[in-house]
Amino acid sequence: MKDPVAERPTRSEARRRVRLDLVELWAIGQYVDGLVRGELRRRGLFGELLALLACLYREGPRTTRELSTALGQAFMTVSDHLDKLEAAGEIERIEHPKDRRSRLVVLTAEGRHRVEEGGPHVQRVADAIVRHLSSDPTRVRDSVSDLRTAVQAAFEELEASA
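RESULT FIELD:
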């Protein structure tokens, strides 16, 4: 019988493995971004800031801070992106009904149209990925959801300490 303690990785091996896993996740993110942008480009659409618009479409009006956390991007980066989307007429910023110091970001009809136009093409990429999974898609989705929660918490923690 094998000794389970002897089979456990050393602490440095475990840390190295975590760093490598993080690089792997980063690479996966790059692949997904490339797949989505490529599919949209082939359809004559542009993916620039589509994730931000899709977040608003899915979750409803949000503050810039909430969008920053949901997307894992710095507050000023999201604010700059919102300026571009506002200039393009795809979002507008309105007074927050409960907090006069902040503003809510809402989709306009143009923004909703862009998300709806891109949606089937993003779904095509998702369907292609699912076809190549070796695990049950529900298990993968649950794991991704758990990972997203952890990554968001880490983002909030690290942003607060910056």
